[in-house]
Amino acid sequence: MTKYLILWRLKAEELPDNPEEMEKVMGMLISSIAKDFADGNLLDWGLFLDGQFGYGIREMEANDLQRWFISVQPSVEVIDVQEVINFDDAQKNIQAVIETM
Fold first, then answer.
1. CB 46 within 8 A of CB 54
2. For every one of its 101 residues, what pLDDT tens digit does the chain have, with 9 covering 90 and above?
3. CATH number, domain with residue 32
4. CA dist 47 to 1, 31, 85, 96, Å?
5. Of the four, 1, 7, 43, 50, which is 20 to 30 A from 82 by CA?
6. Which domain holds residue 26?
């Protein structure tokens, strides 16, 4: 299955000003992240130090990734998406290139 590195930012302008409502929205976000970890399609997730931007590494099919994009659109802006491969695969690719040279 394909792995993707996703850079995102919280849409602060779309988040509620009311502390109780903000707690509810953040609780839903954290629950969604925990579910994605439990489902196995979120491999890593984190915030940058400013707390507004972050990253996720997801392993899923492209159609499922697009569905995820649509579901988070109201509160998260996806900035960049890159398909990634792991170290073992990259090492094999480099070795294959060296051998053909």
1. yes
2. 899 999 999 998 888 999 999 999 889 889 999 999 999 999 999 999 998 999 999 999 999 999 999 988 888 999 999 999 999 999 999 999 999 99
3. 3.30.70.1060
4. 25, 16, 22, 36
5. 50
6. 3-100
Distance (Å, rounded) from C-alpha 96 to C-alpha 99? 5
Q: What domain count does the chain have?
A: 1
Q: How far apart are CA 97 and CA 52, in angstroms?
A: 40
Ranges of H-type helices in 8-86 = 19-39, 62-72
* Distances, alpha carbon 98 to alpha carbons 87, 88, 89, 91, 92, in Å: 16, 15, 14, 11, 10
